[in-house]
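Hi Y.,

Following your request, here is the sequence exactly as I used it, all 127 residues.
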Amino acid sequence: QVQLVESGGGLVQTGGSLRLSCAASGLTFSDYTMGWFRQAPGKEREFVAAISWGGSNTYYADSVKDRFTISRDNAKNTVTLQMNSLKPEDTAAYYCAARSRRRGSLYVRLYRDYDYWGQGTQVTVSS
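Below is the corresponding structure, written out as tokens. Let me know if you'd prefer a different format.
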């Protein structure tokens, strides 16, 4: 049974930082591209960042580029999202997701192209 468990969410002021982690189990972690998505109330789930199965390629939404950094540790089956310079518009539930490497990289930003999802962790940025 595949499990993705996010942690690290919370309340932070504008300009602050948070570090989200996702622990994976039940899958061969190094065979999966890992992504982070977020969803604010009343909005669609949107792509935030992704990292390829080996860690050599990273992808970011324009809205978070140069503020967020995604990384992974295949030895520990974890993926991390370091979020700096947070803004109120970053407020959302953040979800970790896994996508088989067999899917290639074409649709890495598309949430429907992911195979497994975590339950999410809430990030709230106060103004």
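The longest strand covers residues 92-100.

Thanks again,
Q.
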